[in-house]
Specification:
Blueprint (H helix, E strand, L loop, with lengths): L5 E5 L6 H12 L2 E4 H9 L9 H24 L4 E4 L5 H13 L4 E7 L2 H14 L10 H10 L5 H6 L1 E4 L2
Helix pairs in contact: 2-3
Length: 167
């Protein structure tokens, strides 16, 4: 794995992104940014029930901007940042790659994968256990909704990505 200043961790819900990002950050002595941590801490108590996707996405975008501002500053100062922001869509990954390249920062993609049944079980168990990677409950309906949003990586992304299978 090449030493990069910005590491982008992506994959479907329950694949093990947060666990992998934590381990990677320790290994690289990097600063880890998790969208779940930010959203849970900043907006969790205010989250409407039922969850409103536009409400959530507006706040995710705000968090992503602040995370990028801090992560890029860390990297420009010689540090390394691990971004665990979900990156469900090709356009999300491309946007952050483009930001890194425009700032003359090295970037490395990491795709975390696992089988659908295992990922679903992990998410439902995380709701109950509420351990280290728990930020807020993900209902089966939200899991199914988010599952449809994920865009598989392109051949170009896969050509340079570190692919980690967690099942």
């Amino acid at each position: 794995m090449s030493q990069a200043q910005i590491h982008i961790v992506f994959g479907r819900q329950g694949a093990g992104k947060s666990t992998y990002a934590r381990e990677l950050a320790v290994q690289l002595q990097a600063t880890r940014f998790s969208i779940d941590d930010w959203m849970g801490a900043l907006f969790g108590p205010d989250m409407p029930q039922p969850i409103s996707f536009p409400w959530v996405m507006q706040r995710v975008q705000r968090c992503e901007q602040r995370i990028w501002d801090v992560a890029s500053q860390i990297a420009k100062n010689g540090g390394t940042a691990v971004l665990d922001l979900g990156f469900m869509k090709v356009s999300d990954r491309t946007r952050f790659i483009d930001l890194a390249l425009a700032a003359q920062l090295q970037v490395q993609l990491h795709q975390v994968t696992a089988a659908h049944a295992l990922r679903r079980r992990r998410v439902l168990e995380r709701n109950t256990a509420q351990g280290d990677t728990f930020s807020f409950e993900v209902s089966p309906a939200v899991f199914d909704f988010m599952e449809k949003l994920f865009e598989s990586p392109t051949d170009l992304e896969l050509a340079t990505a570190v692919v980690v299978k967690t099942d």
